[in-house]
Structure formats: structure tokens, C-alpha cells
């Protein structure tokens, strides 16, 4: 597709379970970002990748959160031992390295932890 | 990145110009002003950005004060589809490598019929 694709669009899980959220970037975009958005709040930065490596993971809240991008394209955000406070919309964005710095966002994955 | 201050909410009549203010008094000389908006249940969407000159594109105009401490996003003829949360962000231009955007709370703009 032409845009950033995120799957699943909705995920309901139980407290303590493991969750994976996937992001398919726009072809050719080397930078990939993960954000988390709680109801009524602006997106909160989690991590970004430049190619395969995590260039800045300062936003990951704790060691239950981890993200990978093994081939520099698709990325997976992994959450272990989910807690009710992890419930949020997880947004992925990508960009090409260039002058404008415009980020293209996906529709998000809504995670609900019961 | 410098912080920004925006009013939490604004209303505007359909067909009128919507003027959204943003204060960024601690902006550095190499930081740009970016505007994004987020329509309900969608990801944020880029609108426009600028350094010190006024900018215009098909979506909006950006007016930056001479001292660069504040700016205004102008939607010239607002429609109901412009109802969204608008975020003003300042950041260094990504000349080399990628850099994160830091979102604040934004302004919730409601366009009324």
C-alpha cells in the first residue's frame, strides 16, 4: 500500500499476556517511529529507528517494552506482561531522511488490556 | 526541543478563517515550527512547517513573528472536516538523520455549521 500500515487495528488482551504490534512502513522510508497515545493526550514518543538500529529508545517506559526492526523495514513493538495502564493507541510513523522532516503516520493499533 | 504553548480549545464558524496561535518563546535559531493535525481516530497528519518566513501550501498558511517567539496557523476557509486537534511543534530540521517529534496537548478546533 501507499501508506503506513499497522496491524492489528484492535487488540484486546488480558493482564499479564504478551502482545506484538506490527508496522509496515512506506517503501523506502529509513526512519521509523513508535508513539503511544492515551485518551485525550497528545502522542507520546517511545522509540525510533534509523535503518535497523534503535537511534533513540528514551521513551520506552520500562523493560517490558521492546521494539525491533531486523531488516530495516517492518518493525514490531513487543509488550511483555501487559498491564491495564498499557491500554492506549500505539502509532507508527515513518519518514525519509530529507529536508522536510515530514512524518507519515499509520492509523494506529488500539490495545485494550483487561 | 523547545516547548510550545497552545490554547486547549477553539471554535470557528464554517467558511470563516480559523487562526490557531502557538507560543514558542524559547525557540532556538536552528529550530523549525511544524504543525500537524489529528482527526478523530486517525494518525496525525503533517500540515506545514517554516523557519522564519511565512509559508503557504494547499492546506494552510503559517505566519511566524519576526522574533520567532510565536506563530499562527491559518485555515483560510474552514470546513467541518477541519475539526481536529492541531499540534504545534518545534524541532531542529533533520538535515542529517531522523529526529523525533515531541507532541504537546494541542488545540482542539471545532468547526461549527
Descriptive notes:
By secondary structure, chain A is mainly β. Helix content of chain A is 0%, strand content 48%. Chain A is built from no helices and 11 strands. Chain A has strands at residues 5-7, 10-13, 19-24, 31-37, 44-50, 53-56, 65-68, 75-79, 88-95, 104-105, 109-113. In chain A, a hairpin with an 8-residue loop joins strand 9 (88-95) and strand 10. Chain A is globular, with a radius of gyration of 13 Å. By secondary structure, chain B is mainly β. Chain B contains no helices and 9 strands. In chain B, the strands form 2 sheets. A 5-stranded mixed beta sheet of chain B has the order 1-9-8-3-4, with no helix packed on it. In chain B, a hairpin with a 4-residue loop joins strand 5 (55-56) and strand 6. Chain A binds chain B through residues 4, 30-31, 33, 35, 41-45, 48, 50, 55-56, 59, 91, 93, 95, 97-108, and chain B through 32, 34, 36, 41-46, 49, 85, 87, 91, 93-106.
Helix-strand string of chain A: EEEEEEEEEEE
Structure class of chain A:
mainly beta
Biggest beta sheet attributes of chain B: 5 strands, mixed
Let me know the average pLDDT of chain B.
Answer: 92
The number of strands of chain A is 11
Strand content of chain A: over 45%
Strand order of the largest sheet of chain B: 1-9-8-3-4
Strand content of chain B: over 45%
Overall geometric form of chain A: globular
How many helix segments of chain B? 0
The first-to-last residue Cα distance of chain B is 37 Å
Mean pLDDT reading of chain A: 93
Summarize the structure in short.
The complex is a heterodimer of chains A (114) and B (113). Chain A has 114 residues and is mainly beta.
List keywords for this structure.
heterodimer, A: mainly beta, seven-stranded mixed beta sheet, B: 113 residues
Amino acid at each position: 500500500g501507499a501508506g503506513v500500515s499497522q496491524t492489528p487495528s484492535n487488540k484486546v488482551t488480558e493482564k499479564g499476556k504478551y502482545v506484538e504490534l506490527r508496522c509496515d512502513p512506506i517503501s523506502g522510508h529509513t526512519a521509523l517511529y513508535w508513539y503511544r497515545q492515551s485518551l485525550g493526550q497528545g502522542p507520546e514518543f517511545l522509540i525510533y529507528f534509523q535503518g535497523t538500529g534503535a537511534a533513540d529508545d528514551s521513551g520506552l517506559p520500562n523493560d517490558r517494552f521492546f521494539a525491533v526492526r531486523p531488516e530495516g523495514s517492518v518493525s514490531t513493538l513487543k509488550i511483555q506482561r501487559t498491564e491495564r495502564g498499557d491500554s492506549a493507541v500505539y502509532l507508527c510513523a515513518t519518514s525519509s531522511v530529507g529536508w522536510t522532516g515530514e512524518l507519515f503516520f499509520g492509523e494506529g493499533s488500539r490495545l485494550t488490556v483487561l | 526541543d523547545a516547548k510550545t504553548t497552545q490554547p486547549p480549545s477553539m471554535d470557528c464558524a464554517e467558511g470563516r478563517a480559523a487562526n490557531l496561535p502557538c507560543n514558542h518563546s524559547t525557540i532556538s535559531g536552528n529550530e523549525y515550527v511544524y504543525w500537524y493535525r489529528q482527526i478523530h481516530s486517525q494518525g496525525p497528519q503533517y500540515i506545514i512547517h517554516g523557519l522564519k518566513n511565512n509559508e503557504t501550501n494547499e492546506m494552510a498558511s503559517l505566519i511566524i513573528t519576526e522574533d520567532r517567539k510565536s506563530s499562527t496557523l491559518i485555515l483560510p476557509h474552514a470546513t467541518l472536516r477541519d475539526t481536529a486537534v492541531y499540534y504545534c511543534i518545534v524541532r531542529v530540521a533533520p538535515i542529517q538523520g531522523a529526529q523525533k517529534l515531541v507532541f504537546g496537548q494541542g488545540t482542539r478546533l471545532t468547526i461549527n455549521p
